[in-house]
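Morning, I've got a small favour to ask if you have a moment. It would help a lot if you went through both lines with me. I owe you a coffee for this, so here goes:
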Amino acid sequence: MMVCCILPALIFAANLRNSMSFRNIKSLLALVFSGFFLLSALSAQASGDPAPGGKLNPADVIIEHISDGHEFHFFSIGEFHATVPLPVILYSPQRGWDFFLSSKFHHGHDAHNGYRLEHGKIHAVKEDGLTVDESVTVYDISLTRNVVQLFIALILLVWIMTGIAGKYRRGEGTKKAPKGLQNAIEPVITFVRDEVAKPNLGKKHQKYLPYLLTVFFFILINNLFGLMPGSANVTGNIAFTAMLGIISFFVILFSTNGHFWKHIFWPPVPHAVKPILVPVELLGVFTKPFALIIRLFANMTAGHVIMLSFICLIFIFGEMSKSLGYGASPLFIALVVFIYMIEILVAFIQAFIFTNLTAVFIGQAFEETHHEEEHH
């Protein structure tokens, strides 16, 4: 199973190496790592509300980084904040519509147009700009960083796939060998078809292959985006994984047949056991998409929490003793590098697992009677 999970990442990396010089890849990785640790360290030191006594509050820092927000925050140096503000769209039955950029809040320090940003949420405030006005209802439909990054991932996915499809129409990859990004993507598509769709869906694999490929690459792109400094952890958001799970749930339901529901409500077990097994089988229909939702959410959130925890430990040790902080920095940075490399692999693994389990559940939904007989 682990070999199947790792293989898409290795195929992609090997073909990417053929399309780029290895020296350029090493330089790019060195630049990414250096920028990641520097920006993460500066951001962790400057962001978040300090705990009583002016000390760093690791919980606030970690929650702020893995939660949604109204701006892309890259790093802070003193009073300078490298951010990209996002549009704020508010509606209140009492006050009407409001449109402005999140920079008007000055990172939560100021109120604007009777609204204030606190811990990622916008509240209506009174004239003093501090007291929350409970009599005003606020509906926040802003373009948060999760939403913006979701659209960016969608545009990138469509651009990549339409570009590759155009190359195939021109004969590249059919009459002559594929090149560049097409050379890296094609083996991954073939892997999903041969190792995920065909074994689980049999003759119907062509019908479901577009959906499986879309799910795989959409999750993969968002997973990789989430590892970039200052980006949003979209796949670590339960709302995102819930929507993917719900879509898969309906695809599974629409793929069912009479044999599937007969197995649910009249399982092939002794009659005395049927009253016990029927509720379990019926519950299993809903636990399958729930497992997809929680697995992706938990795994992608855990990696970010671990890396941020190691970075926060540098500053926690530094508050105890500067020499201890500097001395522990190489160890924790090495641990973050190690976890970061694992997270790149996990980005591929989780995309594969979600796609593979979806194919397994769909295959079980239209499994015919003779499969059960062969099993017995």
Summary: Residues 12 and 184 are 5 Å apart (CA to CA). Residues 274-320 form the longest helix (47 residues). The chain is about 65% helix and 10% strand. Residues 2-28+145-375 form one domain.
